[in-house]
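CORE FACILITY INTAKE
Project code: CF-77B
Contact: R.S. (postdoc)
Sample description: multi-component assembly, two entities in total
Requested service: structural model of the whole complex
Turnaround: standard
Below are the sequence entries exactly as provided by the requester. Do not edit them.
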Amino acid sequence: MSQNKDPSALTIGIARGGLELKQFMRQRESVVFTLAFPIMLLGIFGSVFTNELTDGVTFSQYFVAGMIASGLVNTGFQQLAIMIPVERDFGTLKRLRGTPMPASSYFIGKVIVVFVTMLIQVSLLLIAGVLFFGVNLPTDPAKWFTFTWLILLGSAASTALGIAFSVVPKSGRGASAVVSPVLIVLQFFSGVFFVFTDLPGWMQQVAAIFPLKWMTQGMRSVFLPDSFAAREVAGNWETGRTFIIILAWLIAGLFISIRTFKWDDQR
Amino acid sequence: MSNVISVRGLKKSYGSTQAVAGIDLTIAQGEIFALLGPNGAGKTTTVEILEGFRTRDSGEVSVLDTDPSIKGSAGRNWRNRIGIVLQSTSDAGDLSVQETIAHFAKYYANPRDVDEVVAAVGLAEKSKELIRTLSGGQRRRLDVALGIIGSPELLFLDEPTTGFDPKARRAFWALIQDLRKTGTTILLTTHYLDEAEALADRVGVISQGQIIEISTPALLGGRATSLATVSWLSASGPKSEKTDNPTALISKLSADFPGEIPELTVKRASLEDIYLEMIGGEDESE
């Protein structure tokens, strides 16, 4: 009926991304919880565990790799699985559904928020790691290539899984109580806080199902010397398997999101 | 183009509970229509079907000549022409009034001017303030601003003044009356009878999933022809009399008194009295 041009889904999605980032930066909780907390953890663990694991590799270097991988999960999975139930509870989603905004614009906005906060977090962790914990940035371009696809693929999978998981919390208020423990347990199991090969076998096997273990292992392949690969479970970095498993989780996350996403909590 | 909303034989059940049990309704262009009814009467379900938020089991529904269950780009065109003010939304406290309205304007093909809408809802002075600093009444005005930013032909208002103090309610009514002048059709749901009376051209009373009467506020439930109660202070104390002919009674009384008839009042049943009678006091059963 109306002859005026509809703004495109992408244009609206980018506007949503900008708006949500503005909100993010204005919320002290989100800035502190999502961005500053991992840096604090890095400071505490890196200062307490100063031992060397092998020649030239300290625990803090090992830990920095794990925290960068965790950053992908914090900014994607954790952020969205808490934020979306809150938006559903507050009626934000229902209100958006009543406007001509295409559904895809909402998700484009979320991808932008995750991507930008992920870049900020990973950069902060890298800077802190290099300045205070003896992390050496790789010089081999192949390692930077691995790093690039790891953060892109890892962040994408984490985003999709966060949207998929957003139907689990029954209310916005309870969301962080449901989401955060899942994540903290997974971090313990996946070799973020401890050396993975020191964990009990069953814990390693549980962790190997989930993507975080593969992201941390991938980050170690980037930031630790190749000689360390011999100390991994398989005796090498398993780069191909890492790629396939994270990709599988991305596809599963997308599939579940499309099938189960709810704009409204009644019905 | 005469009927903006037309509904015939609308039904909707949740499990074994029939929420909407066959509703017929037409709303004309430019009309303000108030849907009244106790909680659980099927009011919200009916409106949400019209808004395209819920599916129906059976019946014909046309909103702006479109079936609200429409999806895709046709659905987008349709949504460009309607505005929805939901019951309560408490999001985005960290954005300013102006930022929020300007952002929503981007969703629409024909948005109204942002500053003009800010002024129309009376938030010009609060334009730069963060939403979380607004009072309840101001937030509701913002909700209306977001409902009208797309220059809708049809506006849904769901219990817009719940929790308002009387002054804020009057101010809000003035805002809605201004919208009427722009020719916007409005479907209003409310618990407040005085609100329906102040705003609506016609009122529909819904109870147990059915519309039990549609009328103008003045004529609802035979209100105009119901008995009037005339009260006054006689020499022997207060007296009152029910009559279907109050004018005759008063002219008789004025002959009995030399000057003013002391404490004279003429009262007809209020809309609320009529309404409570119609729904049989079931407003308590929430």
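Facility notes:
- The mean pLDDT of chain B is 87.
- The radius of gyration of chain B is 22 Å.
Invoice: internal transfer
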